[in-house]
Amino acid sequence: MESEVSGEILAERVRAGIDQPVVAKRMFGGITFMLNGNMLCCVSAKGLMVRVGAEAEPEALERPSWRAALAPVGLWRGSCWLSPAACPRRPISAPG
User: Fold this and answer.
1) In whole angstroms, what is the distance from residue 76 CA to residue 82 CA?
2) For 34-77, how does the pLDDT look when each residue is reduced to its tens digit (9 = 90+)?
3) The 23-27 sheet, strands edge to edge
4) pLDDT of residue 25
5) How far is CA 64 from CA 46, 61, 68, 86, in A?
6) Residue 88 and residue 91: Cα distance in Å, rounded?
7) Contact (CB, 8 A) for 19 and 33
8) What does the pLDDT average to over 66-89?
């Protein structure tokens, strides 16, 4: 059984779960999915980075396998990384 999900496999799972028109761009060392010009999530060898919002960030960071998203000048508030080993093994659905 595979212990980690590659960036490309995870990107396909994200694409399969999004039923809205998104733009995929190479950013942040992976594939970033944009919805209406805003980042929805990013997949890479680092795992899955998602925007959880500033209010939900502390709760997300209490969960195992989640870590803060780092920007060149510090933390990227409101975004967190899910480690590759903890990434879902089925299509990921965007919030509706």
Assistant:
1) 14
2) 999 988 889 888 888 888 888 999 999 999 889 988 877 777 78
3) 23-27, 30-35, 38-44, 47-51, 74-82, 66-71
4) 92
5) 15, 8, 12, 9
6) 7
7) no
8) 81
For the record, the structure tokens of 85 come out as 């080993």
Would you say residue 92 has pLDDT above 60?
Answer: no
Whether 93 is covered by a domain: the verdict is no
Q: Contact, 68 vs 47, CB < 8 A?
A: no
Q: Within a domain: residue 95?
A: no
Q: Which two tokens stand for residue 91?
A: 């299509």
Q: Which of the 8 DSSP states describes residue 59? A: H
Q: Is 11 helix (H, G, I), strand (E, B) or coil?
A: helix
- Count of structural domains within the chain: 1
Quote the domain boundaries for residue 71: 7-83
Q: What is the pTM of this model?
A: 0.73
What tokens appear for 32 in the block? 């970033």
